[in-house]
Every structure is written in structure tokens, then in C-alpha cells.
Amino acid sequence: MAYIEIKHLTKDYGKKRGIFDMSLEVEKGEIYGFVGVNGAGKTTTIRHMMGFLTPDEGTVTINGLDANKSSAEVKRYVSYIPGEINFPGNSTGEDFIKNQIYLSGRGDWEYAENVIDQLQLDAKANVRAMSKGMKQKTAIVSAFASDADILIMDEPTTGLDPLMRDIFIELLKEEKAKGKTIFMSSHIFQEVEEVCDRVAIIRDGMIIDVIDMKDIRYNKMKTYKMEFKSIEDFEHFRSLGYDLHRVKVDDLQLNIMIHDQDINRLIQDLKNFNLVYFKEIKVTFEDYVTQVFKGEK
Ligand SMILES: Nc1ncnc2c1ncn2[C@@H]1O[C@H](COP(=O)(O)OP(=O)(O)OP(=O)(O)O)[C@@H](O)[C@H]1O
């Protein structure tokens, strides 16, 4: 059984809003991304995982326990960063984090200090006086320092500047190295691409694709773009039977899709042609998702 299992989860808010017949599995030790536009259903799904919402249909199980019926027990395994952070009370960030570590029964203040330093958080500030970014950092420190087995995070980098986002990504990698299981929603393709093992794409409350990021990172099908010096060369190359795309006759440019195993043949063939340039077009995760949304995948 997977560490986190969502089976046929449905929460129908009417007028096609909510989540519908959603199923996914997260293995222990995975970083699992959850990507979709605003209103797609990410937060609703995550709230079910935390046991805050009761499903209309279906189940969420975490480590074999029903996330709704056994929510108190499940929370022993889980650290959570909500999408909207509102700290209760009037304490400093430091006191809040220490309290969370205490409640977790496992956490580590020394590690918290390390993360505070890395994120350059003024933890002495009162949580009520904190900016959005400071609140986000406080939530991140407390989630990481609580040393839970599972981290569930709803758009955890909201409010962080790009430098802090990079530090956060590095911290995530450290958590993964410790064997933590991480589920995070995001709309920032770059961060998802960098850290996630698998990514589910959600649209209109339904999962429309689950991508193994290895297929994107280590895709053996490559696309190269080239421009020819003469129309004769351009036409001659077109007659060789390669898989061509975006052929622009006026610019003498085209893209070729080719498997790595055929690259030597291409290089041999190209010796006979005069080129202006030749470059690889990298397929990013964003390109892939755009194709999924356009129905091309
Ligand atoms: N309590 C509720 N009552 C009625 N509709 C709701 C409720 N909660 C969420 N919805 C609707 O369900 C859909 C999914 O919302 P959800 O907040 O899960 O999306 P999201 O992907 O997290 O979006 P965002 O990135 O904007 O937070 C939206 O259309 C939203 O308006």
C-alpha cells in the first residue's frame, strides 16, 4: 500500500466546483508535486489529506490510516503548511516554532535555528507583525523542524523571493535525503521541475495527467533547431525523411525530433550541409504542461 493513497475522492460544491473522483498514490520517500491553475482543486484536496474536510465520496489514507476518521493519529506523521497562514495568538516566531516542536514530540530546535539562519528569518518578531514572506518562512521552519515523516504543503513558496525560493528547494532536497515524503502544490513550474519525482496535473477538480519527472529530465527524444544557408540545402534536407516540425520556408529554419540513438546518423548527414546554426530546444516541464492543457499529450 502506498504511503499516501487518495481513492475516488469527491467533494462536490455544486456548479462543477470541487474535486471529482480523484485518485493518486504517493510512495514513501517521494516528492510529489500537485500542479493546477487557481481554483483547480488543490487546496480542497490537501484539506482532505489533513482531515479538515469530510469527503462526499472516496477516501484518503495516510500510512494506512483514514485521514478523516483518524485525523488526530495521522497528524502525528504529518507537518503541514497551509496556503493561507494565520498564526494563532500573539507570540514571537521563535516561541511559535518552539511550541510546534514541543507538540510534535520529535522536533529539534538546533535544526530550526539552522533553517532560520538559512532563510534569514527574524524569528524574534511577533507573528502578528510579520509580512507574508516572514509568516511563510516561520511556517517552513516549524514544518521542517518538527521532523514529521510527511510534509504536506500548499503553495509553500508563496511570498518568498527567488533567492529564498532557491534556499527552500535546497532544504527540500535535504528533507528528501532524510527519507521524508513530501506532497506540495505549486504553480511555479521551475521549482516543481527541480525537485519533484512525480507531478499530478489537476484541472477542474480532476487529475488529467501524472508525470514521472524522469521522463522529462532524461527524455531520449530530443528536438534540435537549425537554419540552412541556402534553399537548395534546406529542400535537400527536407527530403531525407527526418521527423520535422515548425518548418519555416522563408527563414530556411526547421526543427527536427530525433531519438538519441539516431544522433550519429544526423551528424553524418549534416556534414553535407551549410548551416547558419544548430541548437537543442530543451523541453521544459512548463512546455509539457502547456501541451497537456492544449490536449496535445
Ligand atoms: N467551501 C467551499 N464552498 C464552495 N465552493 C468551494 C469551497 N471551497 C472551494 N470551493 C471551490 O472549489 C474549487 C476548488 O477550490 P480550491 O481552493 O481547492 O482550488 P485551488 O486549486 O487550491 O486554487 P487556488 O490556487 O486559487 O488556491 C473552486 O472553484 C472553489 O471556488
From TrEMBL:
Family listed: Belongs to the ABC transporter superfamily.
Keyword terms of this UniProt record: ATP-binding, Nucleotide-binding, Transport
GO MF, any single term: ATP binding
SUPFAM superfamilies: P-loop containing nucleoside triphosphate hydrolases (SSF52540)
Transport found in the keyword field: yes
ABC transporter domain mapped to chain residues: 4-229
One Pfam family of this chain: ABC_tran
Protein name: ABC-2 type transport system ATP-binding protein
